[in-house]
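Memo subject: From amino acid sequence to discrete backbone structure tokens
Keywords: amino acid chain, backbone geometry, structure tokens, three-dimensional fold.
Body of memo: The sequence and its backbone structure tokens, given next.
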Amino acid sequence: MKRKIVSIDEEKCNGCGLCIPNCAEGAIKIIDGKAKLIDDRFCDGLGACLGHCPQDAITIIERDALEFDEEAVEMNLAPKKHEKSMPLACPGSIAMDFRSGKNTAAGISQGTSPRQRSELRQWPVQFTLVSPEASYFKDADLLVAADCVPFAYPNFHSDFLAGKSLVIGCPKLDDVEFYIDKLTELIKRNNIKSITLVNMEVPCCFGLQRIVEDAVQRSGKVLPIRQTVITIRGEKQ
């Protein structure tokens, strides 16, 4: 049948992933660095993803396509819902609070390097592993950083991490909607005082900005967000 459906210009697409959280049906994925419509049946043709592409690579066209199938969409989304509900059994994901007066996991030392002091207050730090109920998020100033930032910016600990609780992630490689859901829950459950956002200058990394803004909006809270962009040469933009 001929109907309206999403069309993605791969020549324009830079793989930033900003379109993905705005497609509730999970019809778009980043494959080989480009956004692609993975199945005609998943796209309702309503264009909720339009306006979220900085490259204007997404349009609605009319062409022969399989009919939109809500049952197929549910099957497509089911694995993600299951993954979100599964407990993390890895011992390395046990919450550890390094702040003064807090307990640490057995066998973990609070010693510091003689050359440079670590400002890390907790473990784990990755979006997928952190728990929104962890003690180190209570009344915290939150730092949300892209995975690459600490490698590119040498003074990450002293300039950004000191005194803050941390979550890190990559909006291009990971599940953006999952990040938004978890960050929303984290903000709702804790008296977060502020959010500092640090991302790289590359276009895909600005997906982290969308994650933070959407999570704050969904939480119903009003929070100051301070953003810093780091160049690939390791400088503040």
